[in-house]
Fold:
Amino acid sequence: MGSGKTTTTLKLSKRFSDVGQRIGVIVQETGDVDYEEGTLHEMGIKKKYIENVCILCSLETDIINNIQALQEEFRPDLVFIETEEAVLPVRIKADLQRMPLKNLQMAPMITIVDAKYFPLEAAMLLRYARIQVEETDIICPNKVDMADSERTSRLKNMFKDINSKASILDMNAKEGTGISELIYSLGLN
Structure:
C-alpha cells in the first residue's frame, strides 16, 4: 500500500491516451490517490471496479465481467488491472489466460515497491511480497528520490538475487521519472 500503483497507472494511461489509445482500468483498491472520474473522462479512460473484497474469489466473475463490459462499452486498446498489495499477479495472469477472451495479449507483469520502505533482506519479506518479486517481469522501485542511493542499490541487488530475469526500473511516478522506460519495457510503444 502506498507504493504508487495508482499514480503509475494514471501516468501510463495518460501517455497511451495522449497518442490515441483507448484505455480501460480495472481497480480493486483505492489508495492515497484515487481515480477521479472527471480526470479519467478528460483523458478518455474508462474505469471499472472489482466489487468483491477478495480478488482471488472474484476473478472468474468480476474481472472477466469488467473486461467484457469494457469491451462492449468502450473497446479499449489496453486494460490495466490494479490490485491490492496481497494479490499475486501470476495467479491473475494464469486465470486470465484460461478465460475465453478473444484477442487477449498479455503485457509483462509489473510489481511496484516503495524504495524507501520495502524490506532490504529477502528473509524479511512476507510470503506474498516474495512471490510478487519472484514471479514478476518488471520490478519498479518507486519514490527512489526519497531513498538514499545505498538503500536503492541494496534493494536492487536483493531483487536481482530473487529474480534475475526481471527488469528493474527506478521510478518517481509522481514526477513521471521512469515512465518512458517502463512503457518501452512493456513493449507496447
Residues 59 and 92 are 7 Å apart (CA to CA). Helices lie at 5-18, 37-43, 55-73, 89-98, 127-135, 149-162, 179-186. The radius of gyration is 16 Å.
